[in-house]
What does this fold into?
Amino acid sequence: MTLTPEQHRIYFEARLNGQPIAATGRDVSVRCPFHDDRQASLSIHADKGVWNCFAGCGAGGILEFEKRFSNCDAATAWANIGDVCGIKNQNLFRQQPEATYKYVNEDGALLFEKLRFPGKKFAQRAKDVNGTWTYKLDGVRKVLYRLPEVVSASDVMICEGEKDADRVALLKLSGHPSALSSRVAATTNFDGAGKWRPEYSPYFTGKHVVIFPDNDPVGENHARQIAASVSLYALDVRIVELSGLGEHGDVSNYLDLHNAEDLLNEIRKTPHWKPEKGNLLVDAPNFLTTVSPEIDWLVDGVIQRGANGFICAAPKVGKSWLAVDLALSLALGLPWAGFAVRQPARVALITREDNPALTRWRMDRLLTGKNRTRADLEDRLYVNSREQSPVFRLDESGLFLPMIAELKAVQPEFVILDVFNILHGADENDNTEMRLILEELNRLQREVGCAICVVHHFNKTVEGSLTQRLRGAGAIAGWAEWLVGVESVDEHIRKVQFELKAAQPPETFHYRVCGEDFDNWKRIERTDCVPDPKSKRSRAADFVQ
It folds into this structure.
C-alpha cells in the first residue's frame, strides 16, 4: 500500500491524539506514545512517512509504527492504516484469502504471492530484506505463473487468471492418453487482461501454445494480444473459443460441465492462429498494377526520380563542379551533360568541403555559361555552406535534426551532399558503422521526401567497376541506385561513366570546363571525342545548350 504525504499526516495525527504534524517538508518532534515521554522525543517526517524515537523505542515507516501501536501482524496493520486514512477496501486484509497463488522464478524460488479475497479482490505481497511481508511489488521481478513448468513444457495453455490455470493443471494433461504431448503446462500473467508483457513471450520459443480467452470483448482482445506476442517465438498458436460458454464465461466454467477429453477435442478442432494481414505486404498482381511500366526520370536515362546515388571521383578531379552544375540544371529545368531534365526541381545543395567563396564563384560562372541569372534560381535552389553552419554531421542529432527540419520547410525534391567523408565521424571501412550513417540518409529521405546525391571519393588502389572503386565498406555502394564516376584524362578533359540499377547506363562521354579565357565565365561542354588539350574549341554542344 502506497500512501501520500497527506495520508501520512492524517495517520500520525490520529495515532498521536491530535498532536499537530507539519504538512510537508521537514521533521517535527512530538511526544512518543510508546513510553512516558515528557520531552517530545519522537521525530516524524510526514513527506516520507518515517519516524524515529530518540529514547530507544525504535524507528521505521508507518507499517512498523502501526504493528507496534496495535500489537498486530502486518496484514492487520495495513487494514488499520486503511481505516484511519479512509482508503477503499481498508478491511480487505482482515479477511482470510480464498486462495494464495505463489509466483516463483525458473528455479522455484518464491518471488511474490497474489492473494485472492472474496468478491474477486486481489492483493500482491512480497517479503522485504527482513523477511516481513510488504504489500507492494516495487523492484520485484514479475514472472509468469507456474514458470518452472512453462520452461520445461512443450505445450503451454495460457489462461486468463490463476484460478483457471490451476484448474487446467489439475487435469494432468501431460499424462493423458489423448494429450498433444507428454509435457503440458498451464500459466497466466499476474496482472490481468490487457497486461501481457513482451518479456514473457521468449519463454514460448519452439512450443505449441493454446490460449483460452474469457468469453467477452476484453478477454478476446487479451487473447489476440498474447497471440501476436508469442507467435514471434512459438511453433504455433491456437486461440480456443470454447463451445457453450455464457457471457464472461471462462475455461473453469467450461470444465464444470466437461472433462479433459472434451477440452482436448476443442483444441484439436481449432485451427492455428494467423495474424491479421496488414499493409506491409501486397500480392504481386496488385503490386504490379500500381507500378508504372515506365521509369520516372529526373534526369533522362541517368537519375530516376526518388533514387539515391553518388557522384564519385578522386580528389581534385572536378566532382564538385559536376555536382554544382547538376544542382543548377535541375533547378532551372535545363539539360545536364546532354541529358534532358523534363521539368525544374527544387534542389538543396549542402556543401561542406569547399570554401563558400569558391562555391559562389563556381555557381556564378556556371550560371553565366547557361545564360541565366541569380534571379532565375529564386525558390528553386537552396544552399548550406560553412557560413550557415560551420559544422554539419549526419551522426550528431543536434546538428542533423535541425537540418531535417529546415529541409522539410523548403521541401526539396533533390538534395546534394558534398562531400561524404566530412559529413560523419564513422569508420568508412566498417560496414556496421556505415549502415548507421546510411540509415540516417534514409531517414532524411523519408522525412523530407527527396532523392539524395552524395559526392564521394574513389579508392585510390582499386580497379574495376564504379561500385568496386567506391571508397569504403560495401554497404556504401549497396545503398546507391545510380553512380556517376568522374576521371581525369588531362588538365582540362574529364571522362564520365555511369552505373544504374533502373536501366542500361548511358555511354561513357568526356567533358571540359571552359570559357573564353577560362577566368571570366565558365561552362561545361561535352565532347564527343577527346580534343587536343591545347585547343579551346569543342566539337559538341555544351551541356546547357
